[in-house]
Design a protein that fits this description.
It is a single chain. The chain is an alpha/beta fold. It has nine helices and seven strands, in the order αααβαβαβαβαβαβαβ. It is globular and about 45 Å long.
Amino acid sequence: MSEFEQPEKPMRKVRSFVRREGRLTVGQQRALDVLWPQWGIEASGGLLDFKQVFGREAAVTLEIGFGMGDSLAEMALKAPEQDFIGIEVHRPGVGRLLAQIEEQGSDNLRVFCHDAVEILAQRIPDASLDRVLLFFPDPWHKKRHNKRRIVQQPFLDLLRLKLKPGGIFHMATDWQDYAEWMMVEMNEAEGFENVCGANQYSPRPDYRPITKFERRGQRLGHGVWDLVFRKGAS
């Protein structure tokens, strides 16, 4: 039985996301029905063997919350020597990304449709990821909702386990308050160092595509903050 046929499983008490799922387009539904067996990964099944998943040994990047998948598809297309895994809870985005994978012929990208924290804990081996990306997560901007922000110490402790020594955690947000929150949390997190120096935001790395949403924000004068941290060697 596929992920899309299962009843929703109980989640942890505090989620960092809300399912705001709209109606699937015909193309998205077709992608879920036809393409999922080839490029989708089920949430259950124990720890992954990346060599078995991709048929080779290569650097692995995992993106948490890829939205509609445009930037992840572009990164995978531009770096065929690397392997990519995307996690997203919203089925329209998953369907769209699957269709993009088919269209561009990428075989270095796989997809989960599930809660990222559960996937990290249950399916990703320790010290296996070269890079983790978290681009424009839900900022939960109301103070009473801040507890739902994904960048908090328990999540960072889990992430540290999954990154290789020297692995990169790259965050980006267009909410200044969340950027400042991330910086505080990362400064307090054990085993990470800011690649640009203490309390410094990073220039956008070339590998992070500029999305249509981001370009619109730039035209409106909105800022974007990138934070890039490295896991220590020990």
